Amino acid sequence: MSTTSQVRVRFAPSPTGQLHVGNARTALFNWLFARQADGVMVLRIEDTDLERSEARFEVQLRDDLKWMGLDWDEGPDIGGPYAPYRQSDRLAVYREHAERLVSEGKAYLCFCSQEELERDREQKLKNQLPPIYSGKCRGLGPAEAERRRTSGEAAAIRLRIPEHPIRFHDIVHGAVEFSSEVVSDPIILRSSGIPVYNYVVVVDDALMEITHVIRGDDHLSNTPKQVALYEALGWPVPQFAHLSTILGSDRERLSKRHGATSIANFREMGVLPEALMNYLALLGWAPSGGTREIFTPDELKKEFSLERVTPSPAVFDMEKLYWLNRHYIKESSPERIEKLAEPFFVSCGFLPENSDEQTRAWFAKVVALLAPSVDKLEQLPQRAGLIFRYDAAATVNSPDNAEVLAAPKTAEVLAAFAQQAESDPGPMTPERFKAIMNEVKSKTGAKGKDLFHPVRIALTGSHSGPEFDKLIPILEEGSQLDLPHHVMSVRERLAAFRQVKRT
């Protein structure tokens, strides 16, 4: 086989579920390394687990990778010089090389049944011995082994591990060594004809001329078997870089119990792809020169280095991700955020599925008002509740409002505000509102919280919220639109509030 001086990396997920953050980070680090080196990124689908692999998961993981901003140069969807890129389409290739190893005496046929292997394993564990293969079939002569297979006996193929330590260098972990006794003779082809992961990954990586294998450190213990296979097949061993485990806030391995863990989860929550890319890049990698944390994709490609990947576990900090997401929401164009936010408002019934131009212009003001204060876009409808839903009874009876509503100046302030608002039936503009508040202040002597908190509660249901000069136009314009939930104007809210107070 030929060798290449060009950097070639691969991301090789199994289509057995959603793409989670650990695999997404692996894909990202491969992509950054390839793009920085002007190399080749390969997407390969490892679907030899035929029972659990599903086409829909393959489609989703490709969509998730593209959503994150990652692309690839070869893969099942675009082809390439080393096609096919699905393992289920390469079974004949695996059989051919396994039989070659048998013919060369580097692998052998194993006739041990699954039940026999399990009994032997349990006995070794009971005797506190390593649960490795006994080597029962290792000494079978080639002719005898072939005779038994030809007569119909089920036979797996095992690699003959050499009797010397297996050593390799890992870019992240340094020099690594495993004794041959620990590795044992692994099965490479099951009696069913289905090859095992540790074998097919070597065949594919070698034939696709992968120069750097960048993956999670849960594969570190698989590597000696794979190195032994490279050597047995006479193929050059690639460089390895095993990335640290990602932990939850409790320092246990990240899982669903920690909350969102799949890329689909984060997409559905309204996390922006550039925020997630930026955050995943910082999990187990440290940029040079200082404590900088915000990087565009182009900056990451220039800065990234495998030598600065740490072997220590990385803790997934949701609050830091949200901090980055807030930054990117603020940096994004208003039009983009409006488009991304709209489905959240449609799904909760605040917006019609097809808004007219006037409604869209108004909705842009709603998003501009609220987006800078959210961690993720799915929070926007909840924050917009004060615009779309006004409950006068809940406002009056809320324990959070009790202290302000019982304050000495509150009744006088609200009466003066109502009198001024009703004396002029013209449009309630920010300028008109400001003039009314000045008149109320002059008439009642109230100022600061005593002046503004009662009015804010009466109009929004809470003593904190957006600035009035931005909120007032939204309420007034929204009340004129044909929306699934009627937006009440300032005067409608005030009337409803006073009605409840009277009763």
Tell me what you see in this structure.
- By secondary structure, this protein is mostly helical.
- Among the domains are: 90-243, Rossmann fold; 256-330, Glutamyl-tRNA Synthetase, domain 2; 384-502, Orthogonal Bundle (Arc Repressor Mutant, subunit A).
- The chain is built from 23 helices and eleven strands.
- It has helices at 21-36, 55-68, 91-103, 114-126, 142-150, 180-183, 197-207, 223-233, 263-269, 273-281, 297-303, 318-331, 334-347, 357-370, 380-383, 385-388, 392-397, 399-405, 410-423, 430-444, 449-460, 468-478, 490-502; strands at residues 8-11, 40-43, 107-110, 156-159, 166-170, 174-178, 187-189, 212-216, 239-243, 246-247, 314-315.
- Strands 3-4-7 form a three-stranded antiparallel sheet.
- α1 (21-36) links the parallel β1 (8-11) and β2 (40-43).
- α10 (273-281) crosses α12 (318-331).
- It is elongated and about 105 Å long.
- The mean pLDDT is 93.
CATH topology of the domain at 90-243, what is it called? Rossmann fold
**What's the number of helices?**
23
The parts where pLDDT drops under 50 for at least 5 residues are: none
Report strand order across the widest sheet.
3-4-7
CATH architecture of the domain at 90-243: 3-Layer(aba) Sandwich
Largest sheet: 3 strands, antiparallel
Helix- and strand-based class?
Answer: mainly alpha
- The tally of beta strands, per DSSP, is 11
Supply the CATH superfamily name of the domain at 90-243.
Answer: HUPs
Shape: elongated
CATH class of the domain at 90-243 reads Alpha Beta
Give the CA-CA distance, first to last residue: 88 Å
Helix content: 40-55%
SS strand fraction:
5-15%
- Give the radius of gyration: 32 Å
Estimate the mean pLDDT confidence: 93
